[in-house]
Amino acid sequence: MGAIQHDVKLRRILRGEDRWCDGSPSDQATSYFLSEMLDEVVTRIRRGNRALARPVDLLISMSGFSPLTTILAYELIRPTRLLVIYSAQADASIDFIGKHVVGGGRLRYQDFMHRPVQPTDPQGVYREVKDVLARYETPDRRKPSAIIDITGGKKVMSAAAALAAWQLNLDLCYLDGEYDPEFRRVVPGDERPLLLANPTALFGEQEMAAALETFRSGAFDSAHAQYSELCEQIAEPARARFMRSVSALYRAWCDLNLSALPACIRAVDAAQQAAERELTQQTSKTVADQLNFLRTLTTEPPSPAALLVSFFVLGKHYRKIGRQDFAALLFYRTIEGCLARRLELISPGFTCKNPDYSLLGNLDAVTCGYQQALEVTGGRASNELPSSISLIQSATLLYSLNDEFVTRAKLNTPSAIANLRDLAEIRNNSVLAHGYRTITPEQSERLRGRAEHLLSTFWQLHGSDTNVRILCDRLQFILKDR
Question: How far apart are CA 198 and CA 150, in angstroms?
């Protein structure tokens, strides 16, 4: 008998014009479909849907007065276990379902479960789903692969099941088709299974928001891992790919891993172009400015001025996320770099690591001037010039030379050098230097203010026409993913 003849007979049975077995016309029609039509329908649908071939540990099916949707979902998915959640008034369907799915090469009795719920209690559906997932969790805490069938049952049950799927990261199944008023449901055999990924996996907004919070906290390794997962899950991954590449870039930047920057820059550049429609003009401009700046750190050797700006920008980043010790260290490096670099620039060939003081002038005069500067600024007396030059020694040398930098930076008084020495001690006593003290927000702010002032002075003498304060503001890490 062909499909058309089966449909005609099914309708006659439903109207009471024909008999198939004992029971009401509705029960007879169900029995006829299961006995005479189901195998052909399942074979046809499975042949055209490769997604139905993947193994599923657990099918959780909502069931109402008709058992057909649950039975058909079971036959199409063929899970290892089946849980039927049904309204208490529809318990007659459970016998029908059980007779079909248990035995005969299908389920074992212990693998067929059924739980009644109050349709108006969404928590009931959620509890049953969560409990069965926990029951079959493996020793290494891997949850079973599960699908929730939301076709049957009352609408409120389907809604609750969909919410449970969202919360528990489960896929959904829905048997779609044309509604038939005579059957009061989809015509048996005309169902089209829709396998829907979890809404989080499809759209990812909730997970994207969680990843963004991780990103904002400065945990760029973790953010990169979260965005990598989203890239594999969501339907439109362009924004996740962009944020993944930015996470890798910021991680390399924070680590001052200069060798990793070129590959990171290329990755961000490509991802930004792909996600262009989803990004605001402000985000696009900020990232473009960052890429242009970071390219100056990829030369060999990297631009010393760019390194100083980078120290300061990273210091502001760490201060913003509450890492005051890291911020203080980077502000200290900014101050130290400005002073050391100025010494090296005014006397070509001079280096602070291995100084040749004759390049600064007459050696006796340099020594005498340095010793006098130590005396008036409260420094520790020394008969010799330092073999390698620290932050305070750089400032003292520039003071003794009456250099233009110290004049512009207002370091040309004994009290200014003494104040700088006090600031240096804050960093030196911290846990990331030589001491055990924690940097307070007030102390890191003092270091930030002095670092910004000296960096601005250095930039006026040796930088570009760009206002360095504006440049540093433009280079602040993005906090939005659009």
Answer: 13
* Tokens found for residue 438: 């924690």
Q: Which helix (H) or strand (E) holds 173?
A: strand 171-176
Q: What is the mean pLDDT of residues 66-76?
A: 91
Hey, what are 403's tokens? 């250099």
Mean pLDDT in residue range 147-172: 88
Residue located via tokens 């409990």? 131
- Give the distance from CA 335 to its chain's centroid: 34
Q: Label the pairing between strands 179-180 and 185-186.
A: antiparallel
Q: Above 90 in pLDDT, residue 171? A: no
Is the CA virtual torsion 45, 47, 49, 52 positive or negative? Answer: positive
Could you give the CA distance from residue 151 to residue 135 in angstroms, rounded to a whole number?
A: 24
Contact indicator for 86, 63 with CB cutoff of 8 Å:
yes
Tell me the two tokens of residue 321. 């996320």
Q: CA 189 → CA 3, 69, 265, 345, distances in Å?
A: 9, 10, 55, 85
| Contact by Cβ (8 Å): 160, 137 | no
Q: Confidence band (pLDDT; 50, 70, 90) for 387?
A: very high
Class assignment of domain 3-196?
A: alpha beta
Residue 203 has pLDDT above 70, yes or no: no
Average pLDDT, the chain: 91
Enumerate the domain spans of the chain: 3-196, 201-298, 303-482
- May I ask the CATH class of domain 201-298? mainly alpha
Residue 457 has pLDDT above 70, yes or no: yes
Condensed to tens digits (0 to 9), the pLDDT of residues 291-325 reads: 999 999 999 889 999 999 999 999 999 999 999 99
